[in-house]
Write a structure and sequence with these properties.
Elements (H helix, E strand, L loop, with lengths): L1 H27 L1 E5 L4 H12 L3 E6 L9 H4 L3 E4 L5 H6 L9 E4 L8 H21 L4 E5 L10 H15 L3 E7 L8 H7 L4 E4 L12 H13 L6 E5 L8 H12 L5 E4 L2 H16 L3 H18 L16 H10 L7 H15 L1
Parallel strand pairs: 1-2, 1-4, 2-3, 4-5, 5-6, 6-8, 7-9
The protein binds NADP nicotinamide-adenine-dinucleotide phosphate.
Length: 352
């Protein structure tokens, strides 16, 4: 009888330990997030605070955070020039080492110099500092498209991935498919009365995109989930892969509009790329060569699939349908820097 009682007490204690220990582990851990002001970075900051981590959001400019303070409430803000190695070291001078350093840094343009400055050098500064200052884990926001590296930013990312693998630090390299907001720009155009632009027959560029909130949660799971340590993790959202045509059909269905399409041949990209490349080389012009790279980025995102298929490579609750519904309620939602050019260009043309 006494033994039975003792076993019950032990069981209760064990259960209590199982429930409390992950909470304690989370509460005491400190997480530094570089690129905290970016689209994914700010969601990682918000989730990190919500999950009880002591959160340090590292930004280049802390003067304009008021407009997005909802993401930074509860986080400690550190101002830092990530391109300067010494300044990055200063961001690590806190009383205890970070348990996890997360980099969501990314060049805002994607052109060669900027990519190597931010996606490689600045991120490499963070890797070096994490190692020197005994951070326990490095988590990198990379991209699934580095599997087929044709673009400068992909080459820069692969260099930093290699450095992380060689650093002997515990790491998780997260390679997401497309972000939902990045494939939503045409929703804004359709709302303005434009037809949906399809490259080729619209069957290209399949993806199962991931929502920002799901990606942020996945990245933070890399801290406590040991199965995600020392792994390159390709991750997409919960949908089956959908083509551009299927994405368009979904938009027209949700807006209750008659589908209208323009088909643009993919060869147009090659024409523009080759023209800028030739002009750039002939006139030794960096800005024309940068335009050629922007054309390559455009072609890549109009033609290449970004898909994960295995069950463990699909994550999250937000589907593309959910995202479009929310974006429609928000008059088109947020859009990303690459597609913004197209949006502004077409809207300006329509006004004039
Ligand atoms: N878009 C997609 O569909 C997709 C899919 C898979 C993976 N990814 C990858 O996800 C990553 C992050 O994407 P995102 O949309 O969150 O990026 P983002 O919004 O452009 O954020 C970039 C971050 O880097 C910082 N940064 C850029 N240039 C800087 C500079 N010169 N000095 C200091 N800080 C600088 C930005 O700071 P400021 O706010 O001060 O500019 C910002 O915090 C990228 O590497 C991308 O390749 C994207």
């Amino acid at each position: 009888m006494a033994l039975h009682c003792c076993n019950r007490q032990l069981l209760v204690l064990l259960l209590l330990y199982c429930v409390i220990s992950p909470l304690l582990a989370t509460a005491t851990k400190r997480v530094a997030i570089f690129g905290a002001s970016g689209y994914i970075g700010r969601h990682v900051v918000k989730q990190s605070v919500l999950q009880g981590y002591e959160t340090y959001a590292v930004v280049r400019d802390n003067t304009n955070l008021d407009s997005c303070s909802e993401y930074f409430n509860g986080a400690n803000i550190i101002k830092c020039d990530v391109t300067n190695e010494k300044d990055v070291y200063n961001a690590f001078v806190v009383d205890k080492p970070y348990d996890a350093v997360i980099s969501c840094l990314a060049s805002r343009s994607g052109v060669k110099d900027d990519s190597f400055l931010i996606d490689y050098h600045a991120t490499s500064n963070c890797v070096k500092a994490a190692k020197i200052f005994d951070a326990k884990q490095f988590i990198l926001l990379s991209a699934i498209c580095v599997r087929k590296p044709l673009l400068q930013f992909q080459k820069a990312k692969l260099l930093v991935e290699k450095e992380i693998l060689e650093s002997k630090m515990s790491y998780s390299i997260v390679r997401p498919t497309a972000f939902m907001k990045s494939i939503s720009v045409q929703l804004k155009l359709v709302l303005q009365g434009f037809p949906y632009i399809l490259f080729g027959d619209g069957q290209l560029c399949k993806c199962n995109p991931i929502a920002e909130i799901d990606l942020a949660k996945f990245m933070l799971n890399c801290i406590n989930d040991k199965s995600k340590h020392n792994q390159i993790l390709e991750i997409g959202g919960p949908d089956v892969a959908i083509t551009k045509k299927q994405q368009a059909d979904l938009i027209f269905e949700l807006l209750n509009k008659k589908p209208k399409f323009i088909h643009i041949p993919v060869g147009l990209f090659d024409l523009l790329i080759n023209m800028f490349e030739w002009l750039g080389n002939t006139f030794d012009s960096k800005s024309l060569l940068d335009n050629a790279e922007l054309g390559r980025i455009g072609k890549y995102y109009a033609t290449e699939d970004m898909v994960t298929t295995l069950a463990q490579e699909k994550y999250g609750e937000v589907t593309m349908r959910d995202h479009y519904i929310k974006a429609i309620q928000n008059a088109g939602g947020e859009y990303d820097p690459y597609s913004m050019y197209l949006y502004d260009f077409l809207i300006d043309k329509k006004k004039s």
